[in-house]
Design brief:
globular; five-stranded parallel sheet; alpha/beta; Oxidized Rhodanese, domain 1; 2 domains; single chain; 12% strand
C-alpha cells in the first residue's frame, strides 16, 4: 500500500511539473501558434497581389509593400506603431516581422505583438522568421524590395 501511495505521489508531482513548465512556456509568447504565418504563405500572397498590411518592426524593411516602423524594442518606435495603427480597422489582416535574430532572442516581436493584442486587433499574425530574415526569407528567394 505504501508503494502505491509513492507511485501516485510521483505521478502527481510529475503532472504538476509538466503543467508548470507548459504554463511558463506559453506565458512567454503573446501569440498563439495559429498566429504565425509561414514565409512561403506571405510570399505567395505578395506575388498574387493579395498581401495583408505588412509592418516591419525590426531594423530594416526588405519585404515588398511593408511599412517600416523601426525596432519595437525602442519606446519611440512602439509609439510610432501605436500612432500608425490608429486608423487601421481592428479586423484588418496585419502581419508583423523583424528577422534580426531567432525568436527566442528577438527584442522586437514581443513588444509589438503585445501592443496589437492590447489595442484589440483580431486578425494579426507574426511572420515565422524563426531563424532570421536572411535564412527564412532572402535565401529562399522570396520577394525583396528593390533599392
Amino acid at each position: 500500500m505504501l508503494f502505491a501511495k509513492n507511485i501516485n505521489m510521483k505521478n502527481i508531482l510529475l503532472i504538476l511539473l509538466v503543467v508548470l513548465v507548459n504554463s511558463c512556456t506559453n506565458a512567454q509568447e503573446p501569440w498563439k501558434s495559429s498566429q504565425l504565418m509561414e514565409p512561403s504563405a506571405l510570399a505567395t500572397r505578395i506575388t498574387e497581389n493579395k498581401a495583408p498590411l505588412i509592418v516591419c518592426i525590426g531594423p530594416t524593411a526588405i519585404i515588398p509593400n511593408s511599412v517600416f516602423i523601426g525596432m519595437a524594442s525602442e519606446e519611440d518606435n512602439l509609439g510610432k506603431l501605436r500612432t500608425f495603427l490608429k486608423g487601421v480597422p481592428k479586423d484588418k489582416e496585419i502581419v508583423i516581422y523583424c528577422g534580426c535574430c531567432p525568436f527566442e532572442h528577438c527584442p522586437n516581436v514581443r513588444p509589438a505583438f503585445r501592443l496589437l493584442n492590447s489595442l484589440g486587433f483580431k486578425n494579426h499574425k507574426l511572420l515565422n522568421l524563426s531563424n532570421n530574415i536572411r535564412t527564412d526569407w532572402i535565401n529562399k528567394g522570396y520577394p525583396i524590395k528593390q533599392l
